[in-house]
TrEMBL record:
Gene3D superfamilies: Helix-hairpin-Helix base-excision DNA repair enzymes (C-terminal) (1.10.1670.10), Hypothetical protein, domain 2 (1.10.340.30). PANTHER family: A/G-SPECIFIC ADENINE GLYCOSYLASE/ENDONUCLEASE III, DNA REPAIR GLYCOSYLASE MJ1434-RELATED. It comes from Aedoeadaptatus ivorii. Its EC number is 4.2.99.18. The keyword Zinc-finger does not apply. The gene is nth_1. CDD domains: ENDO3c. SMART domains: ENDO3c. The keyword Nuclease applies. SUPFAM superfamilies: DNA-glycosylase (SSF48150). This is Endonuclease III. GO terms for molecular function: 4 iron, 4 sulfur cluster binding; class I DNA-(apurinic or apyrimidinic site) endonuclease activity; metal ion binding. Keywords: 4Fe-4S, Endonuclease, Hydrolase, Iron, Iron-sulfur, Lyase, Metal-binding, Nuclease.
Amino acid sequence: MAIAYGMLSCHIQDDKVYDPQPHKDEKYRHRNRRSTIEPLLQIYDALFSHYGDLHWWPGENPYEIMVGAILTQNTAWTNVEKAIARLAEDLTPQRIAAMPVETLEERIRPAGFFRQKARYLKAMTAWYARYNYDAEAVRRVPLDALRPEILSVKGIGNETADSILLYAFDLPSFVVNAYTMRHFARYPLKTGRTYAAVQAYCEARLPESAEIYNHFHALIVINGKEHCKKRPICAGCPLEGGCEKRIEE
């Protein structure tokens, strides 16, 4: 079901509002609130209205999503699908943990960088074993403690960690990637230029909702692939009307 822009605005007004300069005058605060929140929500609303629910992330269970988050590093998703298909019935944490690393390398070869990714999968699986491969046990850990813990696992950086938190465990950790940076720089939004700055900007202005973060990241990626490319195709882009960097045909 589509989440309306007005509904998001209500969530933010009732729940969490980013107000960098609080003022006693409520009318001023209301104007400040709209000016700081609306551009991000306008982007979300335009993308969601155009594409709808993209049903991300593809995966049968949390562990398969975690594996996909590792395998998709520096490669196309089509290559990830080939590697996952080769794992077949062995795509469980118990079987990956027991599998010789050389065998795992060969099975995931289509995903590229297969030697290092095999070691990353082993490290991630060893981390998951600390929770007895129980997703609910992971979800019980506070997010501000869990994210650094996952980032300490070999081969897991910010984007991979947040993808795992958001898509495997349904936790509200906003995912930033090259498409996010490109969209916000072109629109433009004053998000900052680092991963942490962009993530903080978005999380301060959006409801703390895994569902909304899920949709927003998926929408940015699909629009980045279809329109907001390195050489943009602005005609037909759902953000064309508000984007200051649009190219006139």
